Amino acid sequence: MTTKNALETEPDTHAEQGEHATRRPSVLDQAGGPKGVVYSALPVLAFVIAHNFSGLTTSTIAAFAVAVAIGVARLARKESVQPAVGGVLGVAMAGCIVWFTGSAKDYFLIGIWASLAGAVLFLLSVLARWPLAGVVWNGATGKGHIWRADKRSRLYYDIATLVLAAVFGARFAVQQYFYETDQVGSLGLAKIAMGFPLLALAFLVVAWAARRSNKRLRAIGLLPAKRV
Q1: How do residues 31-47 score in pLDDT, each as one tens digit?
Q2: What is the pLDDT of residues 6-22, one digit of tens each?
Q3: Most buried residue among 59, 99, 100, 138 by CB atoms closer than 10 A?
Q4: Where are the alpha helices (DSSP H) in the chain?
């Protein structure tokens, strides 16, 4: 390869390196990878299993101990401890509620009402014409609010935001039913099954909306053409 050709190809190499360096972490990455998803379910399983054989104190301690053990294991392996720290804090808060109310089902109370709040927030953002899927995605990717200038782009993000609202609404409806009927075991299973798996599907819709919006914005000149 001649010096001239090397100089011509060098910028492309740097561009590729820059693209890899700025690659956004996926939803799975932010959850701590596949192990992070599994780890997030273990404290809930520990609580439900312990509750079947013992009292509230033992089941709460079991969930907290598992959450702490996961954090220590991730720290020892030099993995990200952020998901584990969030898990420990969540278990601690849930344990405090259980201790105060004396009811095992209240271990899931924070998650139930957080799901309702999420559903309402996503729905209100669509009604206000500021769909949160678009606001958060474009804010994180540095595109700002240019997408709001195009009705079709807003429609794509409306759809994605409504899917998120449906996911959170379904979580609330199912878990609230099990809560009202005192089905602690079913509450635990519902929390796991309707957690990351459903959220991952919803984020696929958000990614679809982002791709369609970007393609549309480039077509009408609101975004620069994609480099080949």
Answers
A1: 455 565 677 788 888 88
A2: 444 444 444 444 434 44
A3: 59
A4: 3-21, 27-30, 33-53, 56-76, 82-101, 109-127, 132-140, 151-180, 184-193, 196-219
State how far the Cα of 169 lies from the Cα of 176, in Å rounded to an integer: 10
Closest C-alpha to 63, from 75, 80, 51: 51
Distance CA 154, CA 175 (A): 31
Which tokens sit at 135? 């606001």
Q: What gap in Å lies between CA 217 and CA 171, rounded to an integer?
A: 34
Question: 82-101 and 56-76 are packed helices; what angle lies between their axes, rounded to 10 degrees?
Answer: 170
pLDDT in tens, 178-227: 999 999 999 999 998 898 888 889 999 999 999 999 999 999 888 887 66
Decide if 109 contacts 139 (C-beta within 8 A): no
